[in-house]
Amino acid sequence: MRKMSFTVIAIVVIIFSLIGSVIWTAEQIWKTPINLSDKAAFVIVSGESAHQIAVDLKEDGLIDSVWLFEAFVRFVKRDNRLQAGSYEISRGEGISSLFMTLRYGLQTTDVEVTIPEGYTLLQVGILVNTKLGISDVDWHKATGDESPFEGTMPLLKDKPDTVDLEGYLFPDTYRFAHDATAEDVVRKMLETMALRLDELEIVFSDKGCEGNCWWLQNTHELLTLASIIEREVMTNADRGEVADIFIKRLEVGMPLQADSTINYVSGKKTPGVSADDLQIDSPYNTYKYAGLPPGPISNPGIASIIAANNPQTNDYWYFLTTPQGEVMYAKTYEEQVANKTKYLK
């Protein structure tokens, strides 16, 4: 009889222990913070495993059990999809809510910034000022002709000392910490440009040039040409055609006559240029001076870079863009004049 009593007691203890475990587990998963303002910063580095993230959460006092967090993540089959980034997490947050935050990037303190293709340094500076509060002064220091990145990155080795980082910041969508500095932003964009160029495996000519001939000699020339293409036409097909027109002109010493380079100096956004604009005395005036301008006039996207490196061979020497955005090509100057008369009335 006594043996039966001990068995009953043991069973009762086990049942209550199981109930307690279930209640504790449910509490850990579904509990809500007592004080929502009590937050802690937490960072997930790209490539970290669920186990390492759980260990870090435990060490920061944000979860009570590494095992339970891992088990929950495995249960929902998302162990490799927690988002890298910086977060503010309320202390006492349940594992379920915490998982949603880390899985979908909810409540992240990172700021998403999209840099459109063809934006100039000035336009990018205005954008990061709006998104991240980076001042004009700090932006200029990071991107000017005395940028701290000069001499530290292979990407910039062919850039003349007299020009800034225009053209070298790859346009893309980025995530930056809310307190990112100008140098943080510029470094990331430069590294992305270097990576994308490496992916293209571009080989530059090492041939000498005698007389009126031209090759893309280095990254600076490539980005300069690509930046002009970026601002001149909109479609990939037109980029390839226009790239070949520009290269043919460079080869024979004919001015590029790109309106976009004059607008870069004047600050205008008009599709054409005036007679007065054509008289602007600047090395960026490609009507007045043959050859490439001193540097890029925008930050080109990958399509324009590819076009500059792989132009679409054609017989055209001239082009214009209609008010409707269509690009019209001409083989002779007379055809170009006829197109202007017909489409630019």
Describe this structure in words.
The chain is mainly alpha-helical and 345 residues long. It has helices at residues 2-30, 50-59, 66-75, 95-104, 121-132, 136-143, 182-200, 219-232, 236-252, 259-266, 302-309, 333-343, and strands at residues 39-44, 85-90, 110-114, 173-177, 318-321, 327-330. The protein contains 12 helices and 6 strands. Residues 22-30 and 209-213 have low confidence and may be disordered. The chain is elongated and about 110 Å long. Helices cover 45% and strands 9% of the residues.
Number of self-contained structural domains: 3
The count of β-strands is: 6
Query: How does the helix and strand content classify structurally?
Result: mainly alpha
Instruction: Report the major sheet.
Output: 2 strands, antiparallel
CA(first)-CA(last) distance: 111 Å
Helix content: 40-55%
Cα gyration radius (Å)? 30 Å
The order of strands across the largest sheet is 1-2
Query: Globular, elongated, flat, extended or rod-shaped: what is the shape?
Result: elongated
- Low-confidence runs: 22-30, 209-213
The number of helical elements comes to 12
